[in-house]
Every structure is written in structure tokens, then in C-alpha cells.
Amino acid sequence: MKITAKKRGLSMLAGGAALTLVLSACGGADDLGGGGGGGGDDEATGGDADCAAFEEYGSFDGETVSLFSSIRETEADQLQDTFTQFTECTGITVEHNGSGEFEQQIVVQAEGGNAPDLAIFPQPGLLSRMVGDGYLVPASEAVEANADEGWSEDWKAYGTVDGEFYAAPLMASVKSFVWYSPSAFEEGGYEVPTTWDDLMALTEEIAATGTKPWCAGIESGGATGWPATDWIEDMVLRSGGGDVYDQWVTHEIPFNDPAIVEATDMAGAILKNDDYVNGGIGDSRSIATTSFNDGGLPILDGECYMHRQASFYEAQWPEGTDVSPEGDVFAFYLPGVSEDESPLLVAGEFVGAFNDNEATQAVQAYMSSGEWANTRVEIGGVTSANRAVDPELASSDVLRLAIELLQQEDAVARFDGSDLMPSAVGAGSFWTGMTQWIDGEETQTVLDQIEASWPAS
What local confidence, expressed as pLDDT, does residue 153 receive? Predict the structure, then answer.
């Protein structure tokens, strides 16, 4: 499948308790009173014309709202930039702190009575835990209205716990992508694969030249291992299908079920093969100590050809990298078993509040709006499934493709499985187990350990 030719025609896998993202691309930046958040004539004061889109959030004199997340480095700077005009118009300063230890630290801070005002949760399972422990407050009516307007019921459901709405969706991403160098493919005479067998044949062909076809990295501070869980989730979708995926995520089948063993070994055929990885870095075990941020960079030096990672990885390419079908890097859809089956793995983030202060509610409402979504997408490096987002604001063809896929009316996808599992597994034993697996542990042993860690209730 040439992704540029079929980007509007991927048929998504249906069946089971599918996450059906029924999203229509309606409205755009112009419908939102400015969309991209561009400035006007009076940038220093944010005059009346500039601030019209922000009047609903109120006026505050020198208030500060703290925001905690796992977002760091370039993406953290981009996130902070989304609040520039909001601060000018409302008087609220948003202080963001990003940490690679977010999943652990947010629990520590909440338990210690030092929680931030707002937090961005990448895992609905962790969000549910924080709600169950009594730390988060329900979202305001304004936040819920924005969620109802901009997001499908399925997306809203991930921010809902026991029938109460707590956290609005923020960003969304498509994970089933493989980054590559179009020029390197052209020079080597390689075609973008359309099936899993084609992908493995291409892998073998490249390896035969003496170059490692793949590069990868799963180190991510306290979240080390999560990129490997994405591999497993994509493989479960491809080898087992949607029904098996749903049963696995909800623990209707055990974590060490033969279907999950098969899917894990499918990923291991690449990730644990020293002939195939880790191009430009080391042997297969070096994946465990290679930063997620750096995992795909050897592509730019011709030391590997492919890197499986989500659409949001665009933000990790160095400044000046041409991300386009004829550029330095681009991405193709991670193929399914056949061309007729194209399952899509997606993920998202959700903004929850630890208090109901008016300034906190104002920032949460802004972050749940189409205005914020268009502003963030236009800054670059991310995607959103918010209906209000204009795909033309996307900063690359890959991200535009991701938005179009997310907004397809008949799009059927599966949310990141580890993010839906109980946090003790999804943000715990699954991460550590995959790190041990990359470091040489046997598949069955690792899956048995993860299964044993699943909470009894």
C-alpha cells in the first residue's frame, strides 16, 4: 500500500467491543474565533479584538495554575506556547512541569497533599485510580460541554469514572506507523510494504545487505518499557484481531494466553533479532537502554531504515528535518496480515483537576476547547481527534494523515491497551516485563509474571 495513494481509504478492523471513533471533520480554525491563536495589533495587552475568544474563561489578576504531565523537552515548550494568548487575555499564568517519572510522581504528590492543580493523564487506568482514591474533582459544566461538542462518546467515556465525567480528552495519536527515509528506500529499490509478510520480507532483504533494518528505544525514565507495549498491542491486533484484543485488555483471557504469546513472539521476531536491530546503536538488548526520544534518529544517518512509533514522534526529529513523502523522513501505515485488514492502534491524553478553583476550571475548560486543539495542532508535532480541528493546520503530511484517519466517520480503532488496563499492570508490570523481555527474558516467563500481577478485583 502506497500510503499517499490510500491514506483516505484504510478500512479499520471491526468487531468485539471496538472503540468506534465516529468523528466528522466539521468546522475549522475560522469557526472558532481565531483557531490558531494568532496575535493581533495589540500583542502586549491582548486587546478586545484579540481576546474575544477568551472572554468566556473570565478575568483573573495574577493567578497561577500548575499543570503536571509526562511531556518534556521540545513538546513541553510547544505545550507552554499554547497558553501565551490565554495568559494575556485572562491573567492566568500556567506553570507546566513535565517529568519522565509522571506515573509515579503524580501518586506521590497526591498522597502527600502536594498535588498540582491539573494533570495530563496518558492512561485512563491511572486516571480511574486517582478518582477512586478521591483525589480528582468532577469536571465543570463548561468542560463537559466542550467534550460533548468536540469528541465522540467513546473518547468522552475514557474520562468518565462510575458515570461521572472527570477529564476531557486533550490530544490523540495514531500509533500504527513506521517511520522511514523515502530517499533511502528509493536508493535501495525498496517498496513500502502492504502486508505483514511483505514487511518481514523487506526486513530480511535489508538485513542481507549488512545494514540493520530496524532501530528502536524503549527507555523513558520511570515509564521505561512503554514503547515495547505498543509493539505488543499492534501485534495482538494483527495476529488475534479485535475480539482477542478486547478480551485481553479486559482480562477475559489471561495475559499469558497462547494468542498473546503468539503476538509477543511476532514482535520478538524483529525486536529480539540481532540481525534486524538495533541499527546505529548496538545489539537487540541496547533497545532497553536507548531513549525513546532517540530511538529513530539513526534513520537520518542511514544506519537503520525503519522505526515503529506513533504519529507524535514527529516532534522528536531535529529542527529542520523535512518530514514529507520526498523528505528526510516520512511514515507508512504498519501493515496488517492482509491488505483487507488495517487495524489502528490509537492513544490519547486526558486533563483532570485536583481542585475546583475558578482559575483551575478556566484552564481546564480552555484545554478542552476546539480553540486550544487548533492552537496546539498548528504549533506542530501532534494530532487530535477533536471534531473542530482543521487537518490543514497539521505540521506535516504524516500528522495530517493521522487526523484524517481519526476523523473518518466509519473509523474503527482500538485504544492503547496498556492505558486501559489496571495501572498496576498497564503502567507497571507490563512496562517492566517488556524491559526484561528485551533484555533477554523468555516470552512465556514474562507473560506469566505479568498475568500473576493482575489485580484480583
Answer: 85
CA distance 93 to 202: 51
> Helix %, strand %, coil % for the chain, to 5?
45, 15, 40
pTM confidence score: 0.72
pLDDT for res 95: 98
Q: Which grid coordinates are listed for 56? A: 468566556
Four-CA torsion 184, 188, 191, 193, nearest 10 degrees: -80
* Range 70-76 contact pairs with CB under 8 angstroms and sequence separation of 24 or more: 70/98, 70/99, 70/100, 70/102, 70/103, 70/120, 70/122, 70/223, 71/96, 71/98, 71/120, 72/98, 72/99, 72/100, 73/98, 73/293, 74/315, 74/316, 74/381, 75/312, 75/315, 75/381, 75/382
What integer pLDDT is reported at residue 34 of this predicted model? 33
> Which triple of cell numbers denotes residue 416?
492503547
Encode pLDDT of 167-212 as tens digits. 999 999 899 999 999 999 999 999 999 999 999 999 999 999 999 9
- The structural domains of the chain, with segments of one domain joined by +, span 27-174+346-399, 177-342+422-453
Q: Phi/psi of residue 245, each to 5°?
A: -60, -50
177-342+422-453 matches 27-174+346-399 in CATH topology = yes
DSSP-based three-state secondary structure for 333:
strand
The three cell numbers locating residue 112: 502527600
pLDDT (0 to 100) of residue 404: 84
Terminal Cα-to-Cα distance of the chain (whole angstroms):
44
Which among 183, 184, 161, 157 has a CA at the least distance from the CA of 169? 157
Q: What percent of the chain has pLDDT over 70?
A: 88
Residue numbers of the chain with a pLDDT score lower than 50: 1-47, 49
Distance of CA 255 to the CA centre of its chain: 23
Going by their DSSP bridges, the two strands 177-180 and 330-333 should be labelled as: antiparallel
Please determine, looking at this structure, whether the domain spanning 177-342+422-453 carries the CATH number 3.40.190.10: yes
Q: In the chain, what's the furthest Cα-to-Cα distance? A: 65
Query: Locate cell 497558553: which residue?
Result: 83
Task: Specify the CATH class of 27-174+346-399 in words.
Answer: alpha beta
